[in-house]
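Folding follows sequence. Below is one example:
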Amino acid sequence: MRLPRELKPIFVMLGLGLTPVVSAHAEVVSRLQAMHVPDLIWQPVQHMDVAAIPLHVKPFTSVQSVAWVAERLAQNQDLFQHILVSPGLAVLSGVHEEAHWLAEIWHVSDQSEGSAGRVSVLSFSGLSSLPAAEQQAYAWLPVHAKKLAQWHDGAVTVRGHVPEPASAVTQTLYRLSSSAARSRSQIAARLGSQGWSSQAVSTSDAREIPWEVWQRQNETLFLFFLNTPQGFFLYVHHTR
């Protein structure tokens, strides 16, 4: 799937936080299971381990457009603080109760308005860095970036009648020890030196946008910067 160069944010809310709670993991799963949006046909929640970390995925299909579904899911404002939507694809990301929430919505090519997607949640409360053998990272990342988890479409097998996205997706969550401003500056410089082009995102919000979009040939990077009281995290959504 080639993403168009014009990307439009449809909702922005900054100032997210992480609040420790009792039985946070159980509450995360319960919240995902209870999620409901009219005109979405949900599949059962799937549970799997990614590097021994629990990942929960709830696939869906809809007769509605990508933008329509994104707007409805965005009403869960406590879960999704960062949202980008473009023709054919939308990505929603956020942190709530020490867990990273993600919604991916893509256009179903054989339908004029139909869409499919998945909502996933990964709890990273108390996670340590992965072993050194599993720390292979993007060349544009600062050396202090520590990978917490990574998963590919091949690791997330969607059961049921849910069309797969048209391009391969790799998702990675990192913890960064440097400051947000310094890390973002380093990442931007390295991406530019390696042939990536920053894609402008128009917004009327005067505050700093907590995401970046980069493209290189057929690849696209959605970078979501999660600056929380518990530390600075980077979520990478890589399509190619």
